[in-house]
Structure formats: structure tokens, C-alpha cells
Amino acid sequence: MSCIPMGYSGSEDDLQIVLNVDNNGVRMMEMDVGGGVHEDDDKKSFLPLKLTLKMAAFSMVSVIAVLIIACTAGVRATGTGSTFSDENPIRQVVSDGLRELETSVLNVIGQTRHALTFARFAHRFGKRYETADEMKQRYSTFVESLEMIRSHNKKGLSYTLGVNEFADMTWEEFSKQKLGAAQHCSATKKGNHKLTDAVLPLTQDWRKTGIVTPVKNQGSCGSCWTFSTTGALEAAYAQAYGKSVSLSEQQLVDCAGDFNNYGCNGGLPSQAYEYIKYNGGLDSEEAYPYTGKDGVCKYSPENSAVQVIDAVNITMGAEDELKHAVGVVRPVSVAFQVIANFRLYSDGVYTSDNCGSDPMDVNHAVVAVGYGEENGVPYWLIKNSWGADWGLNGYFKMEMGKNMCGVATCASYPIVA
After folding, report:
1. Catalytic (active site) residue 224
2. What percent of the chain has pLDDT over 70?
3. Catalytic one among 20, 260, 279, 384?
4. In the predicted model, is pLDDT for residue 7 greater than 70?
5. Pick the catalytic residue: 261, 364, 405, 410?
6. What pLDDT band is residue 117 in, cutting at 50, 70 and 90?
7. Which InterPro entries does the UniProt entry name for this protein (predicted)?
8. 364 catalytic, yes or no?
9. Which of 252, 284, 286, 333 could be stapled to 226 by a disulfide with Cβ–Cβ 3.0 to 4.6 Å?
């Protein structure tokens, strides 16, 4: 069992004590007086047991005694008739390998303030560091991420940041692995989407209709544009034919270069749709699986799972057109500019004064699958390609009405045969 306070926000006279306890007794104790949000705010990994006591109410000895009794009782409960399931986060914290990793981190980093937090992070996301120097560098970056998270979340803005698998990656490293080079969205300067008199729903979420396929993970390849393409295509196919299909991103990485796409270095969904249209089809994921690397084209017409008749482009920056398309047509491929703090997005409606909205600013393609309003702020509901552990189970919300970060700058959707 682990008694680990998380997500804590206290006043300067609050005393916070962290006890890591297992069936063998107390293993580690940390104390933190004041200091704001505790760093262990990865709510997906660790179950909080928050014990905040006023300094004036208890002596130091009394506080420690209370916590040891509370945690020991929890240990006894887990050993005799515990109702915790095997998936319980407390058991995950002390799962196989964590103690060894904690020891390794403490040997390299020392008993610094964030060392055990870093060890739990590394264990949670399966991190492996080859050398002590690499571990020190990753730890330093991780601490910088914690400071960014703490500083941002204290502001009480419309969205929060949190620890995720990218917390030990520098911005330069992250952008190289996840983002494509800026692409000029010439196809959307003058769109061909036709507005109709259809009444838009107040909110939309195409996931509820069953046409949105599960979130995928692009890995360490700047192929987001291919996942945006397949995400919108898979939805269009399911809408048209009433059945689901998983389409090949790797075919687009390997084969769509003649249409101004660059594999792991970026591309655009509008240009990918043109490739599929003139190529005659796109293979299934099963027939042409994803490798996350640039490769030689292996397209097989007999494995083609979908054909594209045409692509419909949203006029550059026209959020009214985009809302109409997402509201009454189906999910739409969009692109926007990712800046440094977005990689640590956790919840809420993302907004920023620091991102651009010009065609050469956008660097990441995704799929708009709906829209809504949260705490008075209208938003786009968007499917990402960084895995289901990121953000809101792989999704995020982006403020609507300001062409935030260029979300309506490079938008298009396919028409399937």
C-alpha cells in the first residue's frame, strides 16, 4: 500500500507528509510544508490519500503517529479481505519492478524532492534509461515539466496540464518526433463546402453514433497527417456502409510523396485525399500495417478497403463552415499549431495567446469529431493520435470561435465511393 498525497493545494501553514507503506512497514517518508500543488498529480496512476493537518493542531510526533496508524490500517485491510480489485492504482504503485526502479533512481539522483515521483512516472509509462547521464537529463526535464504544470494550474484557466508520457521529453525532442514540418494549405484558400439551411445541433459528438474509430498512436514519426486522413475516412466509411474499418496510415507514409506529402516529415490530409482519389484506393490496416518509419510503397489494389471520390475543403479560417460540416455532415480533418505546453494537456478547453493561425503556422493534423460548451466556453471536440492515455482518453477540447491556433485554417473531409 502507498499513502501518497496527490493533487494537493494547501496554505503555507499546512503540513503534508507522504508515507509509502507496504506489508513490511514504512518504506519512505517525505514532508512538505506549503508549496502548493503536489507533483504527483497523474490521477491515472496513483490513488490519492490526502491528509492535510494544520501545524497548530498537532505536534510533529502526533502527525506522524496518526499517519502511521492510518496507513498501517490500510495495509492490514489489503492483507485481510480487501475489496481492492487487481486494477486498483494502489496496487499498481507497488507492482513488480517499481521498488527496483525507485532504488535505481535514488542511487543516481539522490533523495531529492521529486526523485520518487520521477520513479513512479518512469514505471507508469515504461521508461527505460540506458545510462545514469540519460536518467539525470530526463529527471531534469521532468522537473521542468512539473514546474510548468504547477505554474499553469495555479492560474485557474479553462484547461489544466498534467503529467503524461511526454513529461521527460524536451520540446525540441517532442516536436521532432510528433509534429510535421509546416505545410502551406493552398487547397483551403477558397473552400468548396456548401452551407445549407440545416439546423445545427447545439452540441455534437460523432462518437455516440459509433462511426468514430478508436484512438491510434503515431509513435515517433511525424505522420499525424496520415492519422487525420484515416480518422476522417474511417468515419465516412462507417457512416456510408454501416460497418467499421481500420485504414492504412503506412501506405500514406510510403506512397503519397508525389502529392506534396513527406512521410514522417509531414503532409496534409487534403493532399492525402487527392492521392487516394487518383491512386484508386487505400489499403486496410491489416493488409498494410503501420511501422512508424518511412518505407518503400507496397500498395496492393486487391487489398484496397476504401475509395475516395473527392475531398471537400473548408474555406480557410471559416469556423462557421467548419461547424456546419462537423455538425451535420461528419468528422472533419483539421490542423493547428502545437506549442510547448500543449503536450502536457490534461483536461478542459485549450486556449492560447501564443499560437499562430496562418497556413505556415499549423504543424499537427487531427480530427474534429464534435463541439460543445464547457463553463460558458464553446469548444471543438478533437481526436488526437498520441494514444488513448493522452489528454481526455486521446481527445482534447479546443476553444471555438477564434480560429484558435489555426484549427479552421486547413480543414477538409472526404467523400467515399
Report:
1. yes
2. 75
3. 384
4. no
5. 364
6. very high
7. Papain-like_cys_pep_sf, Pept_asp_AS, Pept_cys_AS, Pept_his_AS, Peptidase_C1A, Peptidase_C1A_C, Peptidase_C1A_papain-like, Prot_inhib_I29
8. yes
9. 252
